[in-house]
Amino acid sequence: MTPTNIHDIAVLNGLxxxxxxxxxVYAEAARKVNDAYLSGSFSRWSExxxxxxxxxxxxxxxxxxxxxxxxxxxxxxxxxFAKLHEAxxxxxxxxxxxxxxxxxxxxxxxxxxxRDRALSMxxxxxxxxxxxxxxxxxxxxxxxxxxxRG
Length: 150
Fold this sequence. Notes:
mainly alpha; 83% helix; 0% strand; elongated
């Protein structure tokens, strides 16, 4: 395995973990909200993000690496905090806030990766294609949060 592949695989696996966190947050939000429209939206967004995970994992395999299977420790801690917060505050608003916060995090991680000049062009293209979905999810979550705030 080349040094470029090793670096690319490490960056991709970091994004895989963050994207898995996002899938989990959306799926959990879909189960917890009371609003059927929100639940359906979160379920669709979880499926879209699962496709991002699949594309990133496929490229890791193409490079000869083993793709990460789980999310990040930070993501787990964040979800635990969100559960505690949700227990103290009722309604769908804290869930929408959690989704939007997670989208801020994944957008930042992808932007960080795209600034990495050591990535090979094929890996950069995979990340750029995935970023389109990430950016759309971020915009949707931000718009949803704004609309609920009045």
